[in-house]
Amino acid sequence: MKKMTCRDVADFLGDYVSGELAGDLRTTFEDHLGRCVNCQRFLAQYRETIRVGRAAFVDPDADATTAVPEDLVRAILRVR
User: Fold this and answer.
1) Residue 63 above 80 pLDDT?
2) At what angle do helices 23-35 and 6-17 cross, to 10 degrees?
3) Tens of pLDDT along 1-39?
4) Confidence band, pLDDT 50/70/90 cuts, at residue 59
5) Do the Cβ atoms of 1 and 28 come closer than 8 Å?
6) Which residues of 18-56 are buried (b: 16+ CB within 10 A; e: fewer)?
7) Cα(42)–Cα(37) distance, rounded to whole angstroms?
8) pLDDT reading at 76 higher than 90
9) Is this structure's pTM higher than 0.85?
10) Average pLDDT, stretch 41-48?
11) Alpha-carbon distance 8 to 69, whole Å?
12) Rounded CA gap, 33 and 40, in Å?
C-alpha cells in the first residue's frame, strides 16, 4: 500500500492501537497520521473511548441492581 487514506486509517485503527499493525503498513499508517489532523483526532477519541469503556467495568463485583431506581423497575415490569 503506497498511500493510506482516512478510510484505511479507520479500517486499521484497532490493529494499530493493539500493536498488531506491523512493518510497512504501520509506517504508512503513521505517515498518514502525521499529516492528517482529522485522523489524529479520531485516534485520540478512539483511545479515549477504550479508556472510558474499561473504566466502566473496574469493579466486577458492583451490583448494578442497586443503581436502578425502584420506580423504574416497577414501570418496566408493568409494561411487560
Assistant:
1) no
2) 120
3) 688 999 999 999 999 999 999 899 999 999 999 999 999
4) confident
5) yes
6) eeebeeeeeebbeebbeebeebeebbeeeeeeeeeeeee
7) 9
8) no
9) no
10) 95
11) 44
12) 6
Burial of 73 from C-beta contacts in 10 A (0-12 / 13-18 / 19+): exposed
Instruction: Cell numbers for 33, please give them.
Output: 497520521
Contact partners, residue 39, CB within 8 Å, separation at least 6: 6, 9, 32, 33
pLDDT of residue 48: 94
Spatial neighbors of 5 by CB under 8 A, at least 6 apart, are 32
CA distance 48 to 45: 5
What CA–CA distance (Å, rounded) separates 6 from 16?
Answer: 14
